[in-house]
Amino acid sequence: MTGTTDPSARAHGWVAHLRDGGTTPWLAWSATGTPTARPLPGAQQLELLRRLNLDPRGPVTPELADRVLAAPAAGRGKADLPLVGLPHRGFGAAAVDPETISAHELLRVASVLLADDLVALGADPVATSWPRPWRRRIRLVGDPLVATATREHLLGVGRPEGGPRPFVVAIGRPLDELLARTWTQRCFETGATPWAEWLRFWRERDQLPDRADLVASVRRWGGRRPFVRVVTDLDLLPRQVGVRSLPVVRVPGADQAELARRVAAVVGLRVDRQERPGLMRTLQRRIPDSGAAPVGVPAREHEWVARSAARTVRAVTRRGYSVVGDLADLQPRPAPTSSVPSGPDDRQVLDLAIRMVVDPGWRRERQRREEVER
Amino acid sequence: MSTKVLLHVGCPKTGTSYLQDVLFRNQKVLREHDVLYPADRFDAHFLAALDLMTLPWGGLETEAVGAWDSLAAQVRDWHGTAIISHEIFARATPTQVARALDSLGDAEVHLVLSARDLVRQIPAEWQENVKHRSHITYASFLRTIRDPARDSKIGSWFWAVQEIPDILDRWGASLPPSQVHLVTVPPSGSDRGELWRRFSHTFGLDGLDLDLAAERENPSLGVPETSLLRTINQRVTSVIAPPDYRPLVRELLAHQTLSRGVASARLGLAPDDHAWAQELCRSWVEAMADRGYDVSGSLDDLLGPALGTFADPDTVPADELLPPALDAISALLVEGARLRAVEERLHEELREARDERDRARLTPSYRVKRKIVTSLEDSAAGRGTLDAYRRARGRKQ
């Protein structure tokens, strides 16, 4: 870096460098460029572009680079940050070295890009088939990941949920897992508050969210004793819903869920309310695997979860619902050690986001025809 | 195409709610004078701002889809003067500003910024935070905003919408200074109509017969009331979701109940903070003095009032919290009673509907049909038969 270089021309030179696929950090950059009429992007956008270029699947195309540079950082956090080393007017946000920007800040920009990609992709079609008249009438409640996947499968094989006087099939799991899955599924629907905040909300209210509260869910669908099954053994679920087998349920990792949560918030600003579920369902199917574990209930919440699970077991027993499996399976698993991370790690989430922005594979693969048309 | 667009971008807590309410309620009169305030609901421009700036806002953002483009299209299609006004536009980044100005077509854009001194804005912004679920203490709030790093959500937002020279730099950089209008909020104790006169002059509304009755204001709270609300937030923020908080706490408690405590001490700044705020304002005034902006009022208004008696909201004694707390309990009980009445009415309607249904089911033919259906539903073959029958009758499954 030379001391005589015009800082503004240097910044424009760096923008052009990144746009051409460059990866040089700002503080190591010294060449100048021609100023353009467009305002200088924020440090968040520039650093994200540099990280995208650094990805083994990069560098990004100039078109994508322009999108990155124009993308806002979603939400009420910091607005675009100025680059350190440029003349400061004495007002405005403090200048930063882009390399020091947190993964959290970069994710605010990346989530906008992914939301726009998702909106451009559109919702995958839903596989449907003529309803079989002899199908068993059921209503699925409980574990939202299993219920959603089962519901979709049943729709595809002509056994849609619902109908007159249905059996209410409540899919139970250890409550800590059920809570984690409820939050995860919500991230892939309308979005949610962050995992820890969401959990605290329910703990302080000493209530369970609708889909994690098996008894309330059954009651909501008008389930009466002979027509209710509480299923805790998933191997026996197919028989309860009138099919021989069910597909394996994909359980998103903490990073996938957290990314979806952020994307859902932006998608909510991009499309009408009724279009968001289809788009988020598409994301849930297509989001690449990362190997990260799902979110887990931290040790400090374990006592409350155990108490709530015991309450659920008592309520199911008192009401006399038929149980397929063992009610003891509703009890939470042993509390994790405090060293086990329970929530998403922003750096992992950012890695996943970068991978999805750079590699359009998840957008290209259309669903195979046989999956859609049966 | 609009010949002129008046784009009012802030700041918060400068009488903007009143201005927007007057503009919204007088749309017809304004149109008759070729002035467009394009809004189908009072918060239409707020939604446009959320859309322009990609700001999720406690679920409200789902109502903001396409709101900016729609607003800009209405402005472009208008033949006269158009007004856009919302205070959170102040937070827009240079890229968003460029997009906003580009989308307004070739109209002559006039930027309007209403501004008030920091001495009054800082307490007002803290109160606003408290009315939006925050339980940050006043001392922490002051520490946060005085931190030059502006790393926190509160600090970055505060300066993004309150740092007047920076907002003018971001929004006004591409406009000639004569098209940048600064409306200063008159000093405390000024005639109540003075702020409106300044707005009216800047927006070119002088001489129009407008209904100026205040229907929608954002009233301020006294020190004990704000302190109480902050304490309530400590208890409820984590257990009351935003869609419930807005009507129950912000509207019912803060706006309709606690804001009535007009005799309570008003919040100000402690001596050290007061000196800092005034010094900062002085540097802003100096920076803006030579820019050639059109100022309605006086830049000196931005220096703020002299130091007054400071009542610390973080140390309000319990006996001062008691009266507003009782008011709050009373208001919540009245609201609870009202909701119980609503619930009872709905139950009554449901009972009537069920009775009507049961009367219809009392007929012998219905009972026979019901028995047949119940028997058929117990076997796969029966369900198939029923399904075929329902399909033939065109009934939904």
Please give the structural blueprint.
The complex is a heterodimer of chains A (374) and B (397).
Chain A: H1 7-19, H2 43-54, H3 62-70, H4 103-121, E1 138-142, H5 144-156, E2 167-171, H6 175-187, H7 195-205, H8 214-220, E3 228-231, H9 237-241, H10 254-270, H11 276-286, H12 302-319, E4 322-324, H13 346-358, H14 361-364, H15 369-372
Parallel strand pairs in A: 1-2, 2-3, 3-4
Helix pairs in contact in A: 2-3, 2-4, 2-13, 4-10, 4-13, 6-10, 10-11, 10-13
Chain B: E1 4-8, H1 16-25, H2 27-32, E2 35-36, H3 44-53, H4 67-77, E3 81-85, H5 94-102, E4 108-115, H6 118-131, H7 138-146, H8 153-162, H9 164-172, E5 180-184, H10 194-203, H11 223-236, H12 242-257, H13 271-289, E6 294-296, H14 318-361, H15 364-376, H16 380-392
Parallel strand pairs in B: 1-3, 1-4, 2-3, 4-5, 5-6
Helix pairs in contact in B: 3-4, 7-8, 11-14, 12-14
Label this structure with key terms:
heterodimer, A: 374 residues, mainly alpha, 4-stranded parallel β-sheet, disordered C terminus, B: 397 residues, alpha/beta, Rossmann fold
Describe this structure in words.
The complex is a heterodimer of chains A (374) and B (397). Chain A is mainly α. In chain A, 45% of the residues lie in helices and 5% in strands. Chain A has 15 helices and four strands. In chain A, strands 1-2-3-4 form a four-stranded parallel β-sheet, sandwiched between helices. In chain B, 55% of the residues lie in helices and 7% in strands. Chain B contains 16 helices and six strands. In chain B, helix 3 (44-53) packs across helix 4 and helix 7 (138-146) crosses helix 8. Chain B starts with a strand and ends in a 5-residue tail after the last helix. Classes of the chains: A mainly alpha (374), B alpha/beta (397). At the A-B interface, helix 7 and helix 10 of A face helix 3, helix 5, helix 8, helix 9 and helix 13 of B.
